[in-house]
Design goal:
The chain is an alpha+beta fold and about 180 residues long. The chain contains five helices and nine strands. The protein has helices at about 15-30, 65-75, 110-115, 120-130, 155-170; strands at about 1-5, 35-40, 50-60, 80-85, 90-95, 100-105, 135-140, 145-155, 175-180.
């Protein structure tokens, strides 16, 4: 049975491959099937990542195998709003337990000295440290005016609360914005 995992994840292709590898390992261990491909959908106007797909071949079409796959996906961490899809037979199973937070760093409206003296990697490290146990950094996107950092975890509200003190204190985080993405 061929399935598509439509991920409500904003992952660069290289980060989607990491998830594909984790899923492949789980499928092999359970003798359930294999990952056969994937893709990333981008917003045509901005180029920002919208979602991802991972193509999966299950070794059989038994409902138990599909249920086990859903169980395993929720264990490895799939964002809410994701779905496992099949066209024959018609299947749509909502999957995902993680919530998503996008942090958009303003890339044009801050003084040049802030961009020269601050480091986006420091932002990622400090946010991930603040979210310890409730969320982590998954991917990013760089646009002309904004750089988006994508975090997924157990609670958008908690992740946001944990990073707010750092945002208030670090100059590169001025004029930024936060959005819930899953």
């Amino acid at each position: 049975m061929d399935l598509t995992l439509n991920l409500n994840s904003r992952l660069q292709p290289m980060h989607r491959h990491d998830l594909e590898d984790a899923l492949q390992e789980i499928l092999e261990k359970g003798k359930l099937g294999e990952v056969t491909g994937g893709g990333t959908l981008q917003n045509p106007q901005t180029g920002e990542i919208v979602s991802c797909d991972i193509e999966i071949h299950l070794n059989d079409d038994k409902q138990d195998s599909v249920n086990r796959l859903v169980e395993l996906m929720n264990i490895i961490g799939i964002p809410k709003g994701s779905a496992l899809l099949c066209t024959a037979p018609e299947i749509r199973i909502e999957v995902g337990t993680l919530e998503g937070l996008a942090f958009y760093v303003n890339g044009t409206d801050l003084p040049d000295e802030i961009y020269e003296s601050c480091d986006i990697n420091h932002v990622i490290e400090q946010m991930e440290s603040a979210m310890n146990g409730i969320g982590r950094f998954y991917s990013y996107w760089e646009g002309n005016e904004w750089t988006a950092l994508y975090f997924y975890g157990v609670s958008f509200v908690e992740m946001k609360q944990k990073i707010e003190p750092f945002i208030a204190s670090y100059p590169l985080c001025q004029k930024s914005r936060i959005e819930q993405i899953a």
